Amino acid sequence: MATLNNNYDKNSPIAFFDSGVGGLTVLNKVKALLPNESCIYYGDTLHMPYGEKSKEQLLEYSDNIFRFFELKNCKAVVMACNTTSSVIYETVKDKYNFKLFPIVQSVSEILAKLPVTRLGIFATRATITSNAYQNEIAKYNKNIKVFGQYCPDWVHIAEENSMETTKSRDIIKRDLDKMLANNPEKIVLGCTHYPFLLDVLSEYSSKDLFIDPAIPFALHIKNELEKADLLTDNNNFHDLFYVSSNPENFKTAAKMFYELSKVPELLVF
Ligand code: DGL
Fold first, then answer.
1. What spacing in Å lies between the alpha carbon of 219 and ligand 1's midpoint?
2. Would the CA dihedral through 15, 21, 23, 25 be positive or negative?
3. Which residues are the active-site residues?
4. Rounded to two decimals, what is the model's pTM?
């Protein structure tokens, strides 16, 4: 976790970002643990899917978003995106003036302690090809064999809120069957959009098979902010939402994890 100084204001907001609605799966879990925190969420829907972008592109998009979060005086930024955590975290970790929480690096120690020897990871193409989960888990446990698989259609399915269509179900089942051929004892949903598909996945396999890293990640964030004495001491929380395109679509797709009271603000850098 990066930090340039310790002069953060405990009553400043926590920021989250992702390519779209996926990061709401993390925001939802953080809110459940820390209901009084003010949150800012940026969904970079214009540049979705991040999993198909180059490192240079991801650095450019996130630099704009991080500078915006600095202007908003955020005390912490949650990289609620496995793709940016996998591809650019090491490059940006000491560059900005807030505490930075990357999802992959924050949950890998917990995943490495799972009592399994065969672990599946569903994630984006960029996350899988970076080998970030494999490398991070191996730091703590070299005896787990990790099977990474990318599912190129799943992010769109979540953004279109089309999980229940026959076409989507066929795609989800096809990708799941491919992973199941590896006999994984657990499968990590290593893209924040994928928990939107959990109900459908659970129709084809046991729900217990799947791990949503947002759950241990939210606990990690809470513990770290607590240790740094950065949990808010007031309850006048205020949540703000921004997207870079299609605000109406975001509000509709968000519903499973966050009910927005109004459409998010359009903000393009
Ligand atoms: N939800 C993001 C992740 O966790 C990015 C998905 C995408 O836009 O490809 O990787």
1. 21
2. positive
3. 81, 191
4. 0.95
